[in-house]
Design a protein that fits this description.
The chain has 9 helices and 10 strands. By secondary structure, it is of the alpha+beta class. It folds into 3 domains: 116 residues, PAS domain (Beta-Lactamase); 104 residues, Beta-Lactamase (2-Layer Sandwich), CATH 3.30.450.20; 49 residues. The protein is elongated and about 110 Å long. It starts with a strand and ends with a helix.
Length: 275
């Protein structure tokens, strides 16, 4: 599929029409956000504005077919120039069968925001050369920034939101992804505007040009605070249980020792009486 920078489709091939269930004439009357449920109009416009010509960006999108059925697709998008006009090309692969849980999530109407595939998860991209970022709506929510504002530069986020003791580690991880051209998964703590601490799981991967140079990084952030708290509660419970078992063992040992002393005393007393 091909659309312009305003999101209006200008071309589509037969495979795209079969995947979405639209005739060509029908699809060319639509905008990208008319059939995409996993990204808002504002998010898409920000992404296209930051894309460089000839550089592919890998995404995962949830599409609504003409019959209202939702499908999940791996999408490779690229900004190209044609006849003096900038266009976005989309190469899509339907992976719904690999995402049954996500498809069920959408079909049941649980994705009330209509913008993010999983709860407590947001997506991000970062251009280190210009310190320019692109965030999904849920990333704004996780980091505690207003979605109506542009996504803040990375250095600002590092200073305002990343827990002080974790800042160096986060910066080192991102630099390693950039230098080594390898994806990574890491964790850090985030401090919200009101001072609440969240535990974040972050994935990052490099996005490269045709010559292999890394142009930007992209990935996801997931708020795993509930899981972290549950793990801490489980460890505390296990520690309490071990303490109770140890106390019980000591009490049983004390009872056993008292029983042995009583038997010895009874034995000695009986011998004295007999004599």
């Amino acid at each position: 599929m091909v659309h312009d920078l305003k999101g209006r489709f200008v071309d589509c091939n037969p495979a795209a029409r079969r995947m979405l269930g639209y005739a060509r004439e029908e699809l060319l009357t639509l905008h990208e956000w008319d059939i995409v449920t996993s990204a808002s109009r504002e998010e898409s416009l920000r992404l296209w504005d930051t894309m460089q010509r000839g550089v592919s960006v890998d995404l995962e999108r949830t599409y609504r077919r003409k019959n209202r059925k939702l499908i999940v697709a791996d999408v490779r998008s690229m900004r190209l120039e044609s006849a003096g006009q900038d266009l976005i090309t989309l190469s899509c692969r339907d992976v719904t069968r690999r995402r049954p849980a996500e498809a069920e999530w959408h079909d049941n109407g649980k994705d009330l925001a209509g913008r993010q595939r999983l709860p407590h998860t947001g997506s991000w991209a970062w251009d280190p050369a210009n310190d320019q970022t692109f965030w999904s709506a849920d990333t704004f929510c996780i980091f505690g920034y207003e979605e109506s504002t542009p996504s803040p530069p990375f250095q600002q986020v590092l200073r305002e939101r990343i827990y002080e003791e974790d800042r160096k580690g986060v910066a080192q991880r991102l630099r390693a992804i950039f230098r080594q051209h390898r994806p990574s998964l890491f964790h850090f703590r985030l401090v919200g505007p009101a001072g609440a601490i969240k535990h974040i799981e972050c994935t990052g991967r490099p996005l490269t040009a045709e010559n292999g140079a890394v142009l930007r990084l992209a990935g996801t952030v997931t708020d795993v605070s509930e899981l972290k708290h549950a793990e801490e509660a489980l460890r505390a419970s296990e520690q309490l249980a071990r303490g109770q078992v140890e106390a019980l063992r000591q009490a049983l040992d004390a009872l056993a020792e008292e029983s042995r002393r009583n038997r010895r005393w009874t034995s000695c007393w009986g011998a004295s009486c007999a004599s």
